[in-house]
Amino acid sequence: MPEFDDDLIEDIEEFDVLEETSEPTKKVSGITDEFDIAVAAWHEDGRWTLGLLPDPTDIAQIISSLKSQQTNGGAIALISIDEEFFILIRVLGTHISLFLSDATCALDYPVAEELIEIADLQTPEDEDEPAPIGHIEILADLGMSSMELFALCDDSELFPDEQLEAIANRLGFGDQFAELLDL
What we know:
Elements: H1 6-18, E1 37-44, E2 47-52, H2 59-69, E3 75-81, E4 85-92, E5 95-100, H3 110-118, E6 133-134, H4 146-154, H5 160-171, H6 174-181
Antiparallel strand pairs: 1-2, 1-3, 3-4, 4-5, 5-6
Helix pairs in contact: 1-2, 5-6
């Protein structure tokens, strides 16, 4: 097993503590924008467990946190950034799947650019149309098809947090998601 630096281990331990709190808190870190959210979800013992992630803009940290929380079904991060786009990250064993609701956001948001780099996807150009990018079948085995995910990304009436809430509902933990975020 690879060695982690002490700061990363402390952050992962902080995440473990978050899942055990009885009072949901809206913000975990002062680093994030008030519109940014990051929720981890994992399925164990026949039920979903959710927890807030400390920094929605740190993809490497989120992946490490998911690795520490995964069960047989893996762990999922549902991330909304600045009411502009959402990110899905799933860690299942050693496999990491990444999805970005709008590739063109990588032109303006470092977190979206980082995700595209980590996933080794083509960086969008200024003239590109907004479109999802990444592993479109990221949630297919959990009951949400790629067609449903594409339709959700195309719905310009919904904000990213509402899109994530729809995903959470489809996967079976919508009430917990809404309660955790006070939606």
